[in-house]
Amino acid sequence: MNLRNVWQKIYCRVYLIILCICNYQKNIVVSYGPAIGDTLFSLAYIQSLSKKKTIFVCAKGARWVCNYYDLNNIQIKTIPNRSLARIANGLEPDIKRGIIAFLLKKNLYITCARGYMNLMSAKNWNLLDFLKIEVFKCQCDFRRPLVPQIECKKFDIPDNSILLSFSNSAFGVTKEEWEDLASYLLNHGYHVFTNCKSLNEQPIKGTKRLVFTMEEIYNVVDRFHCLIGMRSGFYDFVIDKAKRIICINPDYVQSWWNLKQWGSNCDVINISHIEGKLVEEVVNVI
Fold first, then answer.
1. 45, 142 contact by CB (below 8 A)
2. Contact yes or no for 219/150 (Cβ under 8 A)
3. Residue-wise pLDDT tens digits, 8-25
Protein backbone atom coordinates (compact mmCIF):
# COMPACT_ATOMS: atom_id res chain seq x y z
CA MET A 1 0.00 0.00 0.00
CA ASN A 2 1.53 3.33 -1.03
CA LEU A 3 1.67 6.45 1.14
CA ARG A 4 -1.19 8.12 -0.73
CA ASN A 5 -3.57 5.23 0.00
CA VAL A 6 -2.55 5.19 3.66
CA TRP A 7 -3.26 8.91 3.96
CA GLN A 8 -6.59 8.45 2.19
CA LYS A 9 -7.70 5.80 4.68
CA ILE A 10 -6.63 7.94 7.65
CA TYR A 11 -8.35 11.01 6.20
CA CYS A 12 -11.71 9.32 5.64
CA ARG A 13 -11.73 7.63 9.03
CA VAL A 14 -10.89 10.80 10.91
CA TYR A 15 -13.59 12.71 9.02
CA LEU A 16 -16.26 10.12 9.74
CA ILE A 17 -15.27 9.72 13.40
CA ILE A 18 -15.41 13.48 14.01
CA LEU A 19 -18.71 13.77 12.13
CA CYS A 20 -20.32 10.96 14.15
CA ILE A 21 -18.97 12.10 17.52
CA CYS A 22 -20.08 15.70 16.97
CA ASN A 23 -23.54 14.45 15.99
CA TYR A 24 -23.86 11.42 18.24
CA GLN A 25 -27.61 11.95 18.69
CA LYS A 26 -28.26 11.99 14.94
CA ASN A 27 -28.07 9.50 12.10
CA ILE A 28 -25.31 10.14 9.57
CA VAL A 29 -25.89 8.95 5.99
CA VAL A 30 -22.92 9.27 3.66
CA SER A 31 -23.94 9.15 -0.01
CA TYR A 32 -21.09 8.17 -2.28
CA GLY A 33 -20.46 9.83 -5.60
CA PRO A 34 -21.12 13.07 -7.49
CA ALA A 35 -23.39 11.30 -9.97
CA ILE A 36 -27.19 11.47 -10.02
CA GLY A 37 -27.67 7.72 -9.66
CA ASP A 38 -25.52 7.41 -6.54
CA THR A 39 -27.63 10.02 -4.79
CA LEU A 40 -30.94 8.53 -5.95
CA PHE A 41 -29.98 5.12 -4.60
CA SER A 42 -28.76 6.67 -1.34
CA LEU A 43 -32.12 8.41 -0.86
CA ALA A 44 -34.19 5.31 -1.69
CA TYR A 45 -34.64 4.16 1.92
CA ILE A 46 -33.72 7.26 3.89
CA GLN A 47 -37.33 7.66 5.04
CA SER A 48 -36.73 4.64 7.29
CA LEU A 49 -34.59 6.96 9.46
CA SER A 50 -37.03 9.89 9.59
CA LYS A 51 -38.02 9.30 13.24
CA LYS A 52 -34.59 10.53 14.28
CA LYS A 53 -32.77 13.65 13.13
CA THR A 54 -30.50 12.71 10.25
CA ILE A 55 -27.63 14.36 8.40
CA PHE A 56 -27.41 13.40 4.73
CA VAL A 57 -23.90 13.95 3.36
CA CYS A 58 -23.74 14.20 -0.42
CA ALA A 59 -21.66 15.81 -3.16
CA LYS A 60 -22.22 19.46 -4.01
CA GLY A 61 -22.91 18.49 -7.61
CA ALA A 62 -25.78 16.20 -6.59
CA ARG A 63 -27.45 18.46 -4.02
CA TRP A 64 -30.27 19.35 -6.43
CA VAL A 65 -31.54 15.74 -6.43
CA CYS A 66 -32.61 16.16 -2.79
CA ASN A 67 -35.15 18.80 -3.86
CA TYR A 68 -37.41 16.05 -5.24
CA TYR A 69 -37.80 14.22 -1.92
CA ASP A 70 -39.75 14.95 1.23
CA LEU A 71 -36.81 15.17 3.61
CA ASN A 72 -38.43 16.29 6.85
CA ASN A 73 -36.13 16.02 9.86
CA ILE A 74 -33.17 15.58 7.52
CA GLN A 75 -30.31 18.08 7.20
CA ILE A 76 -28.39 18.18 3.91
CA LYS A 77 -24.64 18.58 4.20
CA THR A 78 -22.56 18.91 1.03
CA ILE A 79 -18.84 18.35 0.58
CA PRO A 80 -16.65 18.56 -2.53
CA ASN A 81 -17.03 15.70 -5.00
CA ARG A 82 -13.36 14.74 -4.69
CA SER A 83 -13.53 14.54 -0.91
CA LEU A 84 -16.58 12.30 -1.07
CA ALA A 85 -14.81 10.02 -3.54
CA ARG A 86 -11.82 9.78 -1.17
CA ILE A 87 -14.09 8.72 1.67
CA ALA A 88 -15.65 5.96 -0.41
CA ASN A 89 -12.42 4.71 -1.94
CA GLY A 90 -10.56 4.97 1.34
CA LEU A 91 -12.96 2.57 3.06
CA GLU A 92 -12.57 -0.23 0.56
CA PRO A 93 -12.39 -3.14 1.30
CA ASP A 94 -12.36 -3.17 5.13
CA ILE A 95 -15.45 -1.09 5.84
CA LYS A 96 -16.63 -3.43 8.61
CA ARG A 97 -13.51 -3.39 10.78
CA GLY A 98 -12.43 -1.37 13.79
CA ILE A 99 -13.93 2.00 14.72
CA ILE A 100 -15.90 2.25 11.45
CA ALA A 101 -17.67 -1.04 12.21
CA PHE A 102 -18.56 0.33 15.66
CA LEU A 103 -19.98 3.53 14.16
CA LEU A 104 -21.96 1.57 11.57
CA LYS A 105 -23.80 -0.12 14.41
CA LYS A 106 -24.48 3.17 16.19
CA ASN A 107 -25.46 5.99 13.84
CA LEU A 108 -23.46 5.77 10.60
CA TYR A 109 -24.88 4.62 7.24
CA ILE A 110 -22.54 4.40 4.23
CA THR A 111 -24.28 3.76 0.91
CA CYS A 112 -21.10 3.20 -1.10
CA ALA A 113 -21.20 -0.29 -2.58
CA ARG A 114 -17.43 -0.37 -3.10
CA GLY A 115 -16.80 -1.21 0.54
CA TYR A 116 -19.16 -4.18 0.31
CA MET A 117 -18.24 -5.66 -3.07
CA ASN A 118 -17.27 -9.09 -1.74
CA LEU A 119 -20.51 -9.31 0.25
CA MET A 120 -22.62 -8.17 -2.71
CA SER A 121 -21.01 -10.77 -4.96
CA ALA A 122 -21.48 -13.56 -2.43
CA LYS A 123 -25.16 -12.69 -1.91
CA ASN A 124 -25.80 -11.88 -5.59
CA TRP A 125 -27.46 -8.64 -4.50
CA ASN A 126 -28.42 -5.70 -6.66
CA LEU A 127 -27.86 -2.26 -5.17
CA LEU A 128 -31.37 -1.79 -3.77
CA ASP A 129 -31.22 -5.20 -2.05
CA PHE A 130 -27.86 -4.31 -0.56
CA LEU A 131 -29.06 -0.94 0.74
CA LYS A 132 -32.25 -2.36 2.23
CA ILE A 133 -30.72 -5.41 3.91
CA GLU A 134 -27.18 -4.41 4.76
CA VAL A 135 -27.16 -0.62 5.12
CA PHE A 136 -30.57 0.68 6.25
CA LYS A 137 -31.81 -2.69 7.62
CA CYS A 138 -35.41 -1.69 6.98
CA GLN A 139 -38.71 -3.22 5.85
CA CYS A 140 -40.10 -0.25 3.89
CA ASP A 141 -40.33 0.14 0.12
CA PHE A 142 -37.89 2.36 -1.72
CA ARG A 143 -38.87 5.86 -2.82
CA ARG A 144 -38.38 7.61 -6.14
CA PRO A 145 -38.07 11.35 -6.81
CA LEU A 146 -41.27 13.34 -7.33
CA VAL A 147 -40.56 15.63 -10.28
CA PRO A 148 -43.15 18.35 -11.02
CA GLN A 149 -44.97 18.23 -14.33
CA ILE A 150 -44.10 21.19 -16.54
CA GLU A 151 -44.86 22.20 -20.12
CA CYS A 152 -41.86 22.07 -22.45
CA LYS A 153 -42.25 23.11 -26.11
CA LYS A 154 -38.70 23.97 -27.12
CA PHE A 155 -38.46 21.20 -29.69
CA ASP A 156 -40.75 19.27 -31.98
CA ILE A 157 -40.05 15.63 -31.13
CA PRO A 158 -41.59 13.20 -33.65
CA ASP A 159 -42.79 9.77 -32.51
CA ASN A 160 -39.82 7.92 -34.04
CA SER A 161 -37.22 10.04 -32.24
CA ILE A 162 -34.23 8.64 -30.36
CA LEU A 163 -32.15 10.40 -27.73
CA LEU A 164 -28.47 9.50 -27.49
CA SER A 165 -27.66 10.38 -23.87
CA PHE A 166 -24.42 11.20 -22.11
CA SER A 167 -23.25 11.96 -18.60
CA ASN A 168 -20.02 12.78 -16.79
CA SER A 169 -19.90 9.35 -15.16
CA ALA A 170 -20.60 7.28 -18.29
CA PHE A 171 -17.71 6.54 -20.61
CA GLY A 172 -16.37 3.76 -22.78
CA VAL A 173 -18.03 4.22 -26.19
CA THR A 174 -15.86 6.21 -28.58
CA LYS A 175 -16.99 9.28 -30.50
CA GLU A 176 -16.61 7.34 -33.75
CA GLU A 177 -18.93 4.59 -32.51
CA TRP A 178 -21.59 7.14 -31.53
CA GLU A 179 -21.31 8.75 -34.97
CA ASP A 180 -21.64 5.37 -36.69
CA LEU A 181 -24.73 4.58 -34.61
CA ALA A 182 -26.27 7.99 -35.33
CA SER A 183 -25.62 7.53 -39.04
CA TYR A 184 -27.33 4.11 -39.02
CA LEU A 185 -30.37 5.45 -37.17
CA LEU A 186 -30.70 8.47 -39.44
CA ASN A 187 -30.44 6.31 -42.55
CA HIS A 188 -33.26 4.12 -41.21
CA GLY A 189 -35.70 6.97 -40.76
CA TYR A 190 -35.24 7.90 -37.12
CA HIS A 191 -34.98 11.46 -35.83
CA VAL A 192 -31.91 11.49 -33.61
CA PHE A 193 -31.09 13.94 -30.81
CA THR A 194 -28.09 14.37 -28.54
CA ASN A 195 -28.43 15.84 -25.06
CA CYS A 196 -25.86 18.62 -24.56
CA LYS A 197 -24.90 20.69 -21.53
CA SER A 198 -25.12 23.99 -23.39
CA LEU A 199 -25.53 25.57 -26.81
CA ASN A 200 -21.73 25.63 -27.06
CA GLU A 201 -21.44 21.85 -26.88
CA GLN A 202 -21.54 20.09 -30.22
CA PRO A 203 -24.01 17.20 -30.68
CA ILE A 204 -23.05 13.94 -32.35
CA LYS A 205 -22.54 14.51 -36.06
CA GLY A 206 -25.85 14.50 -37.93
CA THR A 207 -28.03 14.70 -34.80
CA LYS A 208 -29.94 17.63 -33.31
CA ARG A 209 -28.77 19.34 -30.16
CA LEU A 210 -31.05 19.11 -27.12
CA VAL A 211 -30.33 21.48 -24.22
CA PHE A 212 -32.79 21.06 -21.35
CA THR A 213 -32.81 21.33 -17.58
CA MET A 214 -33.27 18.04 -15.73
CA GLU A 215 -36.91 18.90 -14.99
CA GLU A 216 -37.51 19.67 -18.65
CA ILE A 217 -35.86 16.50 -19.92
CA TYR A 218 -37.85 14.46 -17.39
CA ASN A 219 -41.05 15.87 -18.86
CA VAL A 220 -40.18 15.18 -22.51
CA VAL A 221 -38.53 11.73 -22.42
CA ASP A 222 -41.88 10.01 -22.96
CA ARG A 223 -42.00 11.63 -26.41
CA PHE A 224 -38.99 9.59 -27.56
CA HIS A 225 -39.24 6.15 -29.12
CA CYS A 226 -36.27 5.20 -26.95
CA LEU A 227 -33.15 6.45 -25.18
CA ILE A 228 -29.73 4.94 -25.91
CA GLY A 229 -26.62 5.43 -23.81
CA MET A 230 -24.05 4.14 -21.36
CA ARG A 231 -25.34 3.26 -17.88
CA SER A 232 -25.63 6.48 -15.89
CA GLY A 233 -27.70 8.14 -13.17
CA PHE A 234 -29.61 10.04 -15.83
CA TYR A 235 -31.58 6.85 -16.47
CA ASP A 236 -32.31 6.36 -12.77
CA PHE A 237 -33.79 9.86 -12.77
CA VAL A 238 -36.04 9.49 -15.84
CA ILE A 239 -36.89 5.77 -15.74
CA ASP A 240 -40.44 6.29 -14.45
CA LYS A 241 -41.23 8.56 -17.41
CA ALA A 242 -39.25 6.99 -20.28
CA LYS A 243 -40.88 4.48 -22.63
CA ARG A 244 -37.79 2.48 -23.50
CA ILE A 245 -34.10 2.53 -22.57
CA ILE A 246 -31.31 0.68 -24.33
CA CYS A 247 -28.64 0.66 -21.64
CA ILE A 248 -25.04 -0.09 -22.58
CA ASN A 249 -23.26 -1.66 -19.59
CA PRO A 250 -19.87 -2.82 -18.45
CA ASP A 251 -20.34 -6.42 -17.20
CA TYR A 252 -20.35 -5.66 -13.46
CA VAL A 253 -23.17 -3.14 -13.93
CA GLN A 254 -25.50 -5.77 -15.38
CA SER A 255 -26.36 -7.12 -11.93
CA TRP A 256 -25.56 -4.62 -9.16
CA TRP A 257 -26.77 -1.47 -10.93
CA ASN A 258 -29.34 -3.04 -13.26
CA LEU A 259 -32.05 -0.47 -14.05
CA LYS A 260 -34.74 -3.15 -13.84
CA GLN A 261 -34.45 -3.21 -10.05
CA TRP A 262 -36.47 0.05 -9.94
CA GLY A 263 -39.56 -1.92 -10.99
CA SER A 264 -40.57 0.68 -13.57
CA ASN A 265 -42.95 0.19 -16.50
CA CYS A 266 -40.14 1.38 -18.77
CA ASP A 267 -38.91 -1.26 -21.22
CA VAL A 268 -35.25 -1.64 -20.20
CA ILE A 269 -32.92 -3.50 -22.55
CA ASN A 270 -29.41 -4.15 -21.23
CA ILE A 271 -26.60 -4.81 -23.68
CA SER A 272 -22.96 -5.42 -22.90
CA HIS A 273 -20.38 -2.91 -24.00
CA ILE A 274 -18.22 -4.63 -26.61
CA GLU A 275 -15.69 -2.28 -28.19
CA GLY A 276 -16.32 -1.71 -31.87
CA LYS A 277 -19.71 -3.47 -31.89
CA LEU A 278 -22.05 -0.74 -30.67
CA VAL A 279 -24.07 -0.48 -33.87
CA GLU A 280 -24.39 -4.26 -34.22
CA GLU A 281 -25.54 -4.66 -30.60
CA VAL A 282 -28.10 -1.86 -30.79
CA VAL A 283 -29.48 -2.98 -34.15
CA ASN A 284 -30.24 -6.41 -32.66
CA VAL A 285 -32.59 -4.93 -30.05
CA ILE A 286 -33.99 -1.71 -31.47
1. yes
2. yes
3. 778 778 888 898 899 989
